[in-house]
Input
Amino acid sequence: MFDVLQKAVDVGRNLGATYVELRGEDGFIEYIQMDDGRINALTQRIERGVAVRVLADGAWGFVTTSELDVLDKAVRDAYSMAKAAAPTRHEPIKIAETKPYKDTADIKMKRDPRSVPVAEKIRYMEQMTKVIRDYDSRITAVTVKVRTASGLKYVVTSEGTQIRSRQLLVWAYPWVTAKEGARLSAARFEEASTHQGWEYMEKVATPEFVGQQAARKAKLQLEGVPAKAGSFPCVLGPRVIGVLAHEALGHLSEADLTANSAFAGKLGQVVAAEGVYMTDDGTIPGEIGSAKYDDEGTPTSRVEIIRNSVLTELLTNREYAAKNGLRPTGNARAESYLFPPIIRMRNTYFERGDATEDEMLEGIDFGYYCADFRAGQAQTNASFQVGIQEAYEVVNGKIGRPITDLSISGIATDSLFKIELISRKEFPFENGRCGKGQEALVGSGGPDIRFSKGGITFGGKT
Output
């Protein structure tokens, strides 16, 4: 594959392009959906193709093809597109210099999901469905989704980069609904790995673990008391503080969005309470957002977005690193060869603090502890709204009754200044998917974080 891609790169270089990049993929993707024990979707496809990206006269040209024998034409087409677009640009595109790498980034796995029989995957889903059904008689519907992927990815550039990487995914997602009288509830859970094969589903994301997590949350929603509307002191747990880090703050730090966001012009300024650290890290071993290189061939890195309350760094690709005078951070990612790489998060989280578990709830007469979210969204002005699927009252400094029908909202850049305490306990990452015109697998998390009244607004019954 390297020889084929390199010959096409040479075509673009001979045409006079400033930069030529080819990303080749050869992989297998499978998706299965089971609704109440019945398979309703089962698809398999081979994904094989090449993305061609050419920079010429300060503009990009981008072409994809699934035919390797026409790569020369694809490069010429991308070059022509860039030349045609160049006169329309007010500012020529430049890319930051990076060191070229020749490397193979492999993954040691025990069971390639491509070789696992479909019947075994269906048994896994049947077992999960049974676990969920057996958890509570009030559960009325169960959907289980499983997605796997396995293959190779190549990056070859006109600067001399030649990288081959393993592509891998195992992913499970149950959606559970329950009913008692007129009362309905729904909950979901998600587990995935991009660093282990099917053995991850046998040892970590087992039918018992994943199924019980989803079923328990649906049961709590049925048994919870109605939420009160208003603003109260609260503690957000790892899965909820993670979605705040990602949705409401992480996107503001993506350099292609920053200029039009609430972080615009704030590099070097205080943006949070003292002692707040927030990081995006693509180098954490085994986490879903981690990789050795990004899709431009830049090594991934640890990016300290907020360091002791100060906005310190932004997430960049080579284009926006050059535009803003910043370092390339290795955050250029593409869903597949059908898309150009854009700036995406990897594993985004708040760092641990020094508060003990008792201190986190001490002195709260009434408030909430939010343990898990159902869905969340945010805008570039830092406003956010998150549906909560697992939460509890906090009364006189103690965890109390479960809550139902709760949502949280606010302006994240204001909420940062309302942080009172940050737990010192270790935390797990939540595995999820982020959409920004294309999908990326991301991790998010953080320790328990306490906000004073006014930091988070709760939606519920008055």
User: Anything to note?
Assistant: The longest strand covers residues 38-56. The chain has two domains: 2-222, 226-459. The mean pLDDT is 97.
